[in-house]
Amino acid sequence: MRVRYLLVCLLVVKHVVQQNAQEISGDILANELNKVADSVGWSFLQNEYNKMRYQETRLDGKKQVREIAGKIGGRMIKVDNALKKLKEAVEEDQLSSIEAPQDCCVDRNYQENIRFRTQVSEEEICYSKPSYVIPENLKFPSSKVLAVMKSNLDVKHLQFQYIGLNSGLYINYPATKLTDCDTYDPRFRPFYVSTTTTIPRDVVVVLETSSAMRGDKLFEAKHAVITVMETLGIEDRFGLIVFNDDVKTLKECYENQLVPVTSATTKSFRDFLTSQVGEGGTDFTAALRKAFMFFKANMSAEKNNRDNILLFVSAGEHQNEKGNPLEVIREENEALQNRVVINTFGIGTGLNSDDKELLRNMAEQTLNNNSYGYVKSGKTTFFPNNKGTSLREAMGTYYDYFSVPISLSPTYTQLYKDFFSNESIITGCLPIAFNGAFSGVVCADILISELVAEILYLQQEEFSYAFIMDGEERTLVHPLLPDPRDVEAKEQDINNIYNFETSGDSQQSLNAVFYWTPIIAPGSNFSLCIVTEQNNIVRNIESIPQPSQGDFLYHRWDLNQWPAPFCRHFNRYATQEKSTVKLSPDAFIEAYSYTGVKETEVRVKQYKDYLSGDIFTNPGLKVSAVKSIRLTYPIEKFWTTTSREEAPYLVWRYVMTENGVTRVYPGVRLTDDYDYKLRPWYHRTVSQKTVNVVSAPYEDSWGSGRVISLTKTILQGGTNPDRKLEAVIGTDFSIFYFNQMLEDRYPICAARSNYSCILIDNSGFLVMHPFFIETTSSINSQIHLTYKEGRISRLLIEKGIMYRQPCRDTGNKKEQFTYRVKLPDSLLSGIVDSKEGYQLRPVPGSNLFLILKQRRMLDEESCCNSEHSTSPNSIQCSVEECTCLCYKDLSFNECKNEYVSTRGFVPCSPQLPTLRSVSTPEKDKTKNLPTCFPTDCACRKTESDCFRTSGCSWCTSDKDGNVGDGFCDLKEICPSQQCLKDDCSVKSRGSECYPTVSEPVNVWLYIGVSVAVVASVIIFIVFAVFIFRKIRQNSTDDTYLDAAHDFDMTNKPPLDCEDYNTAPNYYLAELSATSEESINTKAS
């Protein structure tokens, strides 16, 4: 009863205090964020680096580009040597074994393999063949070939090796389970076809669609045409003509030119084929003239250095009155020096002898004269029984009828996604010959992330980067292309260098130097370019700090001994005693030697012994990484003492250095491929140096619930204003703690029925919003202001404070629109709009803006109705000013695979890659362990006290969502303030934790005291307002609100009646009806 009466009293006081809205100040929150940053050790660690002396060195771009190109070229030479070994073994073996190996399409008990990202057997090969290949007389490689394939595994960047034969047989190593074996034919794949010529091909298919082709004939012919497209490589071009009485092609740019086979053109051709039906008669001559027009159009624009192939498919019912096809072929091809080779295919039983003779003569070009150029005869094939697979095989191997050169250098495919890992690879192949005749290919897949590891882990500084392109100006690796390690990115064939290096408008101009050099290796036409800022200076710490006992505890608990006490930090196995360190490839002199290599106990011991000074042989660590390990070690003591005592609400504490060192507390194990440089929060922090960068809320994957991150850069020591990055320090804390802190520092935020306090970052994404507190659903993505606050969004857009920021999404041919939030020079201190009932204030020294909004009837109206997790690529922009994150289509020439214009567009930053991470289960290790944080959650009787420790959560509803009296419990039991257990009840009312002496309660006494308190507060407020107004008349207007932290503690309610939402004695200003006129001072 006593508690109830006093809470009523306090609610009355609170109501009186908040009759008028206060003008909020971002300075208050800025001060709190600075406290958080210092609680995690920002000032402490920055001071450590400030003590260091630095030596400046000018970057030698010429030397660096030569070194990196030499390493990449050396790996390509290893690929060439591996392929030549395999080629020699196969040609010597001549497929001598009649014993069939394992069938690739039969399930076997294969073992999971980290290197190949799937289940394999490195002890055997497997085979597959399409269903139309006759199994009789098939022969297979012997054990000698298998031995060579095994030895090639020493080449670290090689993946699967395989043999494709001209019989359609396919051999794969290591053995694994494949799919689509009945239809997979290696002869139709670009890796195979690319070895059959030394120059590119122009291929035109002429397909009859008359009534004679109805039904299965047309269906199978369409399938065969698609197969022809699939054979073409990155330098080949394609054209398609369908005809009956009329000749039809795709419209627009497809009508008069051959086009490269890309994802866009392939889709257009497929759609065009699908729409065709068999009807009408035939006109061979018109179709042939159109086909030769394609060849002429492309030859007029370039030198003749391409094979020209025409594939003609017909049911054979030519109408003679429309002209002689042989005369058309003579006339058109002689104008092209007889360069075009014609293969003809006759389908069905309707072909009479005259039809067959005509098709043969067309292939042999019987009327053509060699005096105009040597006539190359093609081949004619008939399919009287309409065997579609035979037509597909014949058309798909059109190249088989030409002289196949036996190249001594490998050919390489375009970049594509590996079936198993979905990482980017290229395939290198060499042709094989039996008895001097082309018989197939030997190939190997090459993992791009391993081939170009130096580029991915290049110490880029802030304005340096590298890329690789080939001799046809196609880009293999570039910062604006999807990362080759990304397992979720789609294949991108818009890769011309002009899309990335001549991208129109730039937001920042720098004097840059381009360092070029070729990558020298057999079959390579690649070049490497490193771009650096002119006069690029690198500053390195002069001396190496001395090792300290225990400064390096590696994160792998399975490979080195961790010190006790051990504990359970949410769902992670941890040590309270120490921080743990992880090394990414950036920490090593040769990043290539680290990536994809399984760590061992021996290797970890080498790290430890070298860092402690017990051995002098460097296990490959950069000197700068060694310095970072030792320089960040002192913060461990700060974390385990000061930080833990003063900021128990912090969930994780971590520092990530620019040279690949991660230190985290409590000490836990990270995933082996964890790389903080591939995380959005790291990029946001680096791009906003010197400020506190606060993230949008997210669900912590390590079990600590809904959290917010605060991160800040550690810069090089000294007074240079252009100091470069040394590290990023950060911490996570509960969003519910953050909300309580806001309501404590801004009491008006606690009046949730009348006001909403909202935090947004400088891109307009919500950092704090009532939705985050009220929802029990997981937060799986960032939410933009436009999705939740339509009224505020429109007002900010009208004032030009929030504006759309465009960029070009190169791969998707779209102009994306996101938002930026920036106050104009005239409103740097923020805005107060009394009419609309909202304020917006910058939070100095951070990426945040604080909004105080008065709730109104139409507040729920948003700018868009789509799901808030939708990306800008999913919603087309409307004509409204306030829209979702959206896109507009860009003008793109599919036929040339290039944008109509690159001027006026800034490319979007590529999506950060998603890696194929494998976590080690720790459930058995955490069982029965104590928690790393205090376990007295049940003794914390108020919501504010509950959230002041990282491991506790305030439960407001049970498992079924029924709201009840709040109580404090472990966060794992009550994440997002909803209990997950069947027994959801108060575990302790506090008497066990804080025993008190029970005394009789005089209710009337409390009522009297309460009335007196209310009266005193009213008198105090009147007096304070009077004094405040007198001050405003005689001093500079200061619209920022500062908390009076020295209020009288003697009047504080008893401990068991403490309410976190009770306002301290802040001095509150009235919200003026003309509030904007007084917003002028303390701008920052």
TrEMBL record:
One Pfam family recorded for the sequence: VWA
The keyword Transmembrane helix appears for this protein: yes
Alphabetical keyword list: Membrane, Signal, Transmembrane, Transmembrane helix
Transmembrane segments: 1003-1028
Protein name per its UniProtKB record: VWFA domain-containing protein
Entry keyword Signal: yes
GO molecular function, one term: voltage-gated calcium channel activity
Region forming the signal peptide: 1-21
InterPro entries, A to Z: Ca_channel_alpha-2/delta (IPR051173), Sensor-like_sf (IPR029151), VWF_A (IPR002035), vWFA_dom_sf (IPR036465)
A GO cellular component entry from the record: voltage-gated calcium channel complex
SMART domains xrefs: VWA
All residue ranges annotated as the VWFA domain in the record: 202-402
